[in-house]
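User: Okay, second chain of the day. Same drill as before: sequence in, structure tokens out.
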Amino acid sequence: MLIILALLACKDSRTTDGLNRIISFKTQKVGVITDRRIAEMSGIAASRRSPGVLWVINDSGDDARVYAIDEYGTLLSSTKVNGAENLDWEDIASFEKDGKSYLLIADIGNNTVYRDIFTLYVIEEPGLGFSTSDIVWQIQFQYENGPRDTEAVAVDLLYETILLLSKRDVPAVLYELPLKPAQGVLSARRLGDVTSIPQPRRAEIKTALDYYHAQPTAMDMTPDGARLAILTYRRLFIYDLHPDKTIIESLNQKPQQFEFPTLAQPEALCFSMDQNALFTTTENVPAPLLKITVE
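Assistant: Same drill. Structure tokens below.
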């Protein structure tokens, strides 16, 4: 299916180059994930050191492990994160800093609001076949206005920050933390409401899940900081981050959107290594692996 989207295509770091260029998105089911070891996928990230590799995580109930799959959904390897605990892992992001490739694992789920302290683990991206990996640094934090349930995280390398988008608030709320290591329990700074994600209309509500289809379940930012994507249970939203606006101002402009009317419970999203595509998949197996290619 070919969807024509008008995106603000920025090749450089939040510049105005290429604004209003028309871009098309072509969606393909490139594979099916069937391995039951990754039956609860809640996050996906593109490898920065191994072309064609994607990293995925399970949410609560699994060990503290990251799994490598190829771009067809085949499980390649798993790596245990020493010293980490999987209370409710909900998203993963990849980034490069000072010539090294890292994975950020977000233990941020809080379905029943049972905790108010959350943990982000940063590890060097493992090679394929590595059985264990050590934590390079970790960040413990609270939200400045009380506990939140969050499933979406992104790394903004331009400003060396971590962005978190709450799930159950209406509208969703964007928070910010420093990317660098820190001591003690930090306070995630509230940046503001994201009002551009439409809530379900009465006519759309036909099943119980329809009540919640506007809840953000994943988020990713391109390494150049020009574009950010947010996934909900039904739609994908693409935002261009304008150099003359704050990030919350950019996210409150009308995004381009893509609908997944038949994709059940999508909770993982990432840009490809070359930034020209996005990958998404769902919880439970068999799970389709979709590639949305920019043309």
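The first helix runs from residue 247 to 251.

User: Thanks, on to the next one.
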